[in-house]
Specification:
7 helices, ATP synthase gamma chain, 297 residues, elongated, hydrogen ion transport, alpha/beta
Length: 297
């Protein structure tokens, strides 16, 4: 049985840990609202961008000279997997869930005989992936110095991916991130970046539905607009993934720290009970010794 001193030291240690987890929970809660608003504000723009590209892509996809960002290279032998994660821990299973989804996809592609290249955005995902897929990791984008995610943080990542694509280093690019739904629920999400995903539509009416109920004429022309929109779309979708990850991280962190704080409280109660019982046993033993000694005299 541990001594009273050992129990007291452990109780104080758990109390110190509880203070840290409680403070971390409050910090995550304060950051969550702003991160959630930023993620929700970016969704309509990103979704509308996809719809516009769908309408434009249907018009030019079959034309000669269509952009490779739209129609691809004609093969899918080499795939770039972009895995977004957090820079810090203490956020529950947030990073593990993203990496789990990415690993399943990577294993599926490797089993199909494809070549995989991994680009990590965030140190935690890199740490988890390098154990099993270290040989496939080509780069790590460290955003630990960024306090507030902005579009300027997504642009360099998109520029590097586009440059690799132009050099013919991969055929398909897929992004993994966690879509924020609530503080309790974050959904690991897979999204194809390159070539731009083109849903199958059968007629102009379905194209109109994709664009919100109208058919548009574009000036100067679909091909010219796509030349500018396709690279921008890559940056927009990466930016959206970063914002979703930021909100998901804070939600997961708040939930994890709340659970840790409550678990610490329960452990303190149990240790305090053991401490009091041990202390009572020591006092009783001392009293018995005193009474026994007095009777002997």
């Amino acid at each position: 049985m541990p001594s009273l001193k050992d129990l007291k030291i452990r109780i104080n240690s758990v109390k110190s840990t509880q203070k840290i987890t409680k403070a971390k929970k409050m910090v995550a809660a304060s950051k969550l609202r702003r991160a959630q608003e930023a993620a929700e504000a970016a969704r309509p723009y990103a979704e509308k961008m996809e719809k516009v590209l769908t309408g434009l892509g249907q018009a030019v996809a079959d034309q000669p000279g269509a952009s490779p960002l739209l129609v691809g290279t004609g093969k899918d032998d080499v795939e770039l997997v972009v895995v977004g994660s957090s820079e810090r821990g203490l956020c529950g299973a947030f990073n593990a869930n993203i990496v789990k989804a990415a690993k399943a996809h990577i294993n599926e592609r490797l089993n199909a005989g494809k070549t995989i290249k991994i680009l990590c955005v965030g140190k935690k995902g890199h740490t988890l992936l390098k154990r099993d897929f270290g040989e496939y990791i080509i780069d790590l984008k460290d955003l630990s110095s960024v306090k507030k995610i902005g579009f300027a943080n997504a642009q360099p990542i998109a520029a590097d991916i586009l440059a690799m694509y132009e050099r013919g280093e991969f055929d398909v690019a897929t992004l993994f991130y966690s879509k924020f739904q609530s503080a309790l629920v974050q959904i690991p999400t897979k999204q194809q970046l390159i070539p731009a995903p083109m849903p199958e539509v059968a007629n102009d009416e379905e194209v109109a539905d994709e664009l919100g109920g109208a058919i548009y004429d574009y000036e100067p022309g679909e091909a010219e607009i796509l030349e500018d929109l396709l690279p921008r779309n890559v940056a927009v979708q990466i930016y959206r993934g970063l914002l979703e990850n930021a909100a998901s991280e804070q939600g997961a962190s708040m939930t994890a720290m709340d659970n840790a704080t409550r678990n610490a409280g329960e452990l303190i109660d149990k240790l305090t009970l053991v401490y009091n019982r041990t202390r009572q046993a020591v006092i009783t033993s001392e009293l018995i010794e005193i009474i026994s000694g007095a009777e002997a005299l």
